[in-house]
Write a structure and sequence with these properties.
The protein has 236 residues and is of the alpha/beta class. It has a 6-stranded mixed sheet with strand order 3-2-1-4-6-5. The mean pLDDT is 91. Helices cover 37% and strands 11% of the residues. Helix 2 packs across helix 3.
């Protein structure tokens, strides 16, 4: 494994990401992660919502002790926090928990209670987008668990791309996987998953803005149900 010490401009990183996205489009997930680790070393991390630990598990096999970044918004289901703690306890990863600048109580005092109902975009910006931006400052590349089959808004997710908002390389090693692929990997390797996945939830975010999905709905339909909002801002 090498550690990326060479300074690169944004244009160089963008070109690197776009070239890797083309060259690795048909590569297996471990190969994509190997490229990221070899290219960025300690400047690479995995982000996880703790819906499952598939990408964290894949990355730990390539780079034991890899940083896994988790956003604790203050609104998570207890099962999500429990999954994070279990991942930290049993997997060869270094879980880093990020928190917003304000507690829920402090945010309520400044913006009023239940901001997530009145202005979910602002709530996500304060409790997700800004903490992640700050938490990724020391990394040059980050991995996500995005998959193309999750929703129409994610159908064009590259396996490696350029995150224009954060000026970083964004790696989505399982972008081409289906839910069946995820299920098969979980079963084969005994990967930890959030218990809510067995209780009707297909995509798990903050408790106030997440519901079970109905038959025939896509996996993201349970997020911000009844609103035009489909993403929290981390990926779009």
């Amino acid at each position: 494994m090498t550690t990326d010490q060479k300074p690169r401009t944004d244009d160089e990183l963008r070109s690197l990401a776009e070239r890797a996205g083309r060259e690795l489009e048909d590569a297996a997930a471990p190969e994509i992660l190997r490229w990221a680790v070899d290219t960025f070393g300690a400047g690479f991390c995995v982000t996880s919502s703790m819906e499952d630990a598939v990408v964290a598990h894949l990355a730990s096999r390539v780079r034991p002790g890899v940083d896994v970044v988790f956003l604790d918004t203050g609104y998570h289901f207890p099962e999500t926090i429990g999954t994070r703690d279990a991942v930290a306890a049993v997997m060869d990863v270094n879980v880093r928990t990020l928190t917003p600048r304000q507690t829920v109580a402090e945010q309520d005092a400044e913006y009023g209670p239940r901001l997530h109902d009145r202005d979910p975009d602002l709530c996500c910006a304060l409790r997700k987008v800004r903490p992640l931006a700050e938490g990724l400052e020391n990394y040059r590349a980050w991995a996500t668990g995005l998959r193309r089959d999750e929703s129409p808004t994610r159908a064009n997710t590259p396996v490696v791309g350029w995150d224009e908002k954060r000026r970083k390389v964004k790696v989505s090693p399982i972008a081409r996987w289906t839910q069946d692929d995820v299920d098969a990997y979980v079963a084969e390797h005994g990967v930890l998953t959030n218990p809510l996945l067995m209780d009707g939830y297909a995509s798990i975010g903050c408790a106030p803005c997440t519901r079970r999905v109905l038959e025939g709905e896509d996996a993201r339909a349970g997020r911000w149900a009844g609103r035009a909002k489909t993403e929290c801002g981390l990926h779009g």
